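The instructor's notes for this session suggest beginning with a concrete chain rather than abstract definitions. Hand out the sequence below and ask the class to guess, before any prediction is shown, which regions might be ordered.
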Amino acid sequence: MALYTDIQPSVANQYLMMSRLFSRTFILLVFIFFVAGCATAPIDFPKQYSEAITDTDDTRLGKGVAQWIEDHPGKSGFYPLFEGMDALGVRLALIDRAEKTIDAQYFLMKPDSTGHLFVMKLLEAADRGVRVRFLLDDIFTTVKDDGLLVLNQHPNIEIRLFNPVGRSGSYYLNYLGDFKVANRRMHNKTFTVDNQISVVGGRNIADEYFGIDKDTQFRDTDMIARGTVSKDISKKFDRFWN
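After discussion, reveal the predicted structure:
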C-alpha cells in the first residue's frame, strides 16, 4: 500500500500534465484555425486621388479670413470652444456657410442625434454643390456600413474608412488576424470648410462629446482655427485621405 501511495500521485500528475498540455495545444490549434480563416479588408480598392480645393478666397469665409489676415499678417487665429453645444453649433454653422468644400476627419461617429444632425447638414451642403470628403476610423465607428454606403452614393460626397477590418466572419477574429494593420488607428479630429476655417480638438461625432447624452459626457475642448494653419491642416488631411 505504501508503494502504491508513493507511485500513484506521480502517475496522476503525469496524466494531469498531459491533459493540460493537450487542452492548451487543442485551444491553440483552434485559435490558429480561426485566425488563418479570418478575412482581411482589401487594400487595393480603387480610389481617386484628390487634394484640398485651394481657390476659395472668393468664398464668404475666404473674404472674411483675408480681411483678418490683412490685419494680422503671417499669423493664425484661434478661439477655444469649451462647451459642447457651442462646439456642435460652430460645426453646423460652418457647414451652412460652406460654398466649395468640406473636409471632415474623425476617430468615430455614432448613429445618434449628433450623428444624424451632422450627416443631414452634410447632405444639405452636398445638395448645394459643396464637395464633401469624410474620413472615419473604422474600429469604433458604429454607423452601419449600409448607411455609409448610401451616403457615399451622393455625387458630391465621398466617404473613406481608415484601415478597415475585414467584414467576413467574426469581426474580432479579423481584428486579431490582421493586428498589425488593425492596431494602426487614426485619432485625428479635424473639420475644415472652404480651406479657410478649421475646427480641431478632442471631440468626435457622438452625443457624449457635446453634452447631449445625459448619462455619459466627455469633457473635451475644441479650437476654431483660421489663417495659414488651416492650409496646413488641409495638407495633413490629404495625406491621410490618399
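Then share the key points. Confidence is low (pLDDT under 50) at residues 1-9, 26-37. The beta strands are 76-81, 101-106, 131-137, 157-162, 190-193, 197-201, 222-227.
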